[in-house]
Design goal:
Blueprint: E1 6-10, H1 17-31, E2 38-42, H2 48-55, E3 60-64, H3 81-85, E4 91-94, H4 97-102, H5 107-119, E5 123-128, H6 132-136, H7 140-151, E6 164-167, H8 181-198, H9 200-205, E7 207-211, H10 216-223, E8 230-233, H11 240-248
Parallel strand pairs: 1-2, 1-8, 2-3, 3-4, 4-5, 5-6, 6-7, 7-8
The protein binds 1,3-dihydroxyacetonephosphate.
Length: about 250
Amino acid sequence: MARTPLIAGNWKMYKTEREAEEYIQALLPRVSAVDGVDVALCVPFTDLRAMVDSARGSRVEIYAQNMHHEPEGPYTGEISAPMLTELDVRGVVLGHSERRAMFGETDKALALKVPAALEAGMVPILCVGETEEERDSGETDRKLRQQVRDDLAGVSLERLADVVIAYEPIWAIGTGRVASPEQAQESIAFIRALVGDRERQAAESVRVLYGGSVKPDNAAELLALPDVDGALVGGASLQADSFAAIVASAPR
Ligand code: 13P
């Protein structure tokens, strides 16, 4: 089954609303002619409303970078799914390694967040990936198996294919050390097989992205790999030119 590639930019904690406006005005004309690729920008909460308004009617969808699993409650500083969907936010990054490492994001919380995002009608991008030590000691598959199993535990078989999984080896994030095509293909095929262990057909349609030092000059090779269905782009998504170049290199 043909899977539509998804190129998602993760801005992390970059861009005020004013900077975001300048960016989107530069980006939209550069991606308007590109067909057959889904494009998303995962932006800070404070940029969401302006970006949704500015991107309306374009091919760019606006995603958030985190979400609480409860619809409302006494959770100071948190943002819920209904708060996002009312703004027409279409998806949300969940379990990014920066949130796991620095802000205590747990597999237990993700097992609640992923189904909550789906039920709210958003696309969850679940991030998984191993540390350098885990790769060096042959623990990559074990880590990926544990994260996929635990973080998707609350997702029903019918909804499994609606999740997007981003394979982001932690040693490749922000380091310029992109995974080799062989490493990316092998781990992403393994993740797809893990989904297939739960539901054979979902493996055919679930989209698995690669993330970690994706740049305009390495994107085409990664995106051409048989199991790689797109990219989650950090640093190179912060300039409209380089993000548009990555979008343009997706096969379609
Ligand atoms: P870089 O593209 O800057 O390595 O970041 C990857 C990432 O963490 C995307 O979520």
